[in-house]
């Protein structure tokens, strides 16, 4: 996917509207997931997505390493999420007694790596599994089993077992990618 990201960035910078659609189809769910993990509700996560899209539109040409597009978008999403939370809920945080956990730099880097691995793993799944996981697990709000069954031409009772198999496949791909990444890191290749 590294080459694909490089090509995608180049196409976006050349004004290819389809490339922008493709970029957000792939990375939109990741941006929303980062926002939700930072403490945003669904409406705020959509605001974060808009902020990140604007940042990408304005700053994609300054991205020095297009292969790191996923990490850059995730980092931008995290920054925007924390900024949004600070601006929208300052009094709530002061009086609730609970502060938003700001991750350490190491935690942030690991979370970015995890999100990139998740994106790569999703791209390695077959099309039906990818669609189902995006609708049932990544969409905000999730699509109902009945609607997924209708769209996929399935019985509603078969959606759960198929989803479970797809998630198992995804987990195996993630494990493989994680093993490769940690092996490359340990041996000094990454």
Molecular structure report:
Helix 4 packs across helix 6. The protein has helices spanning 2-13, 17-38, 42-59, 69-88, 90-96, 105-124, 127-138, 145-152, 156-186. It is built from nine helices and no strands. It has two domains: 1-94, RNA polymerase sigma factor, region 2, helix turn helix motif (Rna Polymerase Sigma Factor, Chain: A); 125-190. The two termini are 16 Å apart. By secondary structure, the protein is an all-alpha fold.
The CATH superfamily of the largest domain bears the name RNA polymerase sigma factor, region 2, helix turn helix motif
Question: Which H/E pattern describes the elements?
Answer: HHHHHHHHH
| pLDDT < 50 runs, ≥5 residues | 185-190
Q: How many strand segments?
A: 0
Overall mean pLDDT stands at 81
Main beta-sheet strand count, sense and barrel state: none
Sheet-strand content, in percent, reads under 5%
Briefly, what CATH class of the largest domain? Mainly Alpha
Number of domains: 2
Task: Give the proportion of residues in helices.
Answer: over 70%
Q: Quick one: overall form?
A: globular
Distance between the termini: 16 Å
Helix/strand class: mainly alpha
Please tell me how large the radius of gyration is.
18 Å
CATH topology of the largest domain: Rna Polymerase Sigma Factor, Chain: A
**CATH architecture label name of the largest domain:** Orthogonal Bundle
Q: Count the helices. How many?
A: 9
Write the layout of secondary structure elements.
Blueprint: H1 2-13, H2 17-38, H3 42-59, H4 69-88, H5 90-96, H6 105-124, H7 127-138, H8 145-152, H9 156-186
